[in-house]
Fold:
Amino acid sequence: MKAVVAEPLGGPENLKYIDVPDPEPPAPGQAVIQLEAIGVNFIDVYFRSGLYKAPETPVRLGNEGAGIVVAAGEGAPFEKGARVAYAMARGSYAEYATVAAASLLPIPDDVSFEQAAAVVLQGMTAHYLTHSTFALKPGQTCLIHAAAGGAGLLIVQLAKIAGATVIGTVSTEAKASMVRQHGADHVILYTHQDFVEETKKLTGGKGVDVVYDSVGSTTFHKSLDCLKPRGMMVSFGQSSGPVGPIDPLLLTQKGSLFLTRPSLAQYVSDPAELHWRANDLFRWLETGQLKVHIQQVYALSDAASAHRDLEGRKTTGKLLLRP
Ligand code: NDP
Structure:
């Protein structure tokens, strides 16, 4: 079968579309999926560059996919032909993937492979951030950086579903308009405006209850100044580069703040939590409460272009690959 690997680690030009061995028959508890749609996520950039370490050589890319079960191992509760999606199992930039059946999510009939592949990883991230890490309530206000991004547009919508007031940051007017269309109450162009000053103005000087920050290096420290006393800083990514070391005393000086650096893995390891998050997302998709914006579908062989566009800040919403 065909697959995309990073060899050697480095820039998008190092992504190679190569032949790899076909999947073995699945072990007990596993299933082989024929992929129909593959999600592109910033985490793939980190595995490609080597910021996140993978044990195998060459490194297999991709953490999210949707497709059809073509073989199920003993005890795997799926029939051949079942439509499924999954996140957080690496190797989805391929024609087939072997995945633990426990992580597979049945796709409802009304939801397409593309929609499912566009929503599982970033949607479950948006869900745990807004419903668990800092469970938003009506009357609370959140600040969401890179609000037009794949994770961003979904966090905006889930924060609104939770009843919060949403302030989003983006780099361009076109992205601002997209974020407004997805329900944000206020949008700040953080490339032109001082987002601390604007956030203070919008909150009557009080600051926000929580910041969801996926941008990292360029936004982290100023984000602490946007929080009200005892507010929570959720640093969940580093699209602009990693955040350096932090002195805990800084959190005291900025107003007894809370800081967390969460990962999706710890919020879906319990099957009940995994299915709660996925069922909410699929239900909201079916009822129209949640919109998925798929900006572009690339050929699997052209994964490098998807990476260039994502890293180049050219994209809004989701990018997919088609095998
Ligand atoms: P996005 O679609 O959000 O793309 C990145 C966006 O970040 C850009 O569009 C851009 O928006 C903004 N950005 C700001 N500065 C830079 C820069 N210097 N270079 C590139 N982009 C920049 O990507 P994803 O939704 O896939 O992921 C966003 C982040 O969230 C990643 O760091 C990812 O690892 C993290 N993440 C973490 C998870 C977790 O559980 N911890 C799970 C899922 C994602 P703009 O032009 O508006 O500034």
The chain has two domains: 2-120+268-322, 138-261.
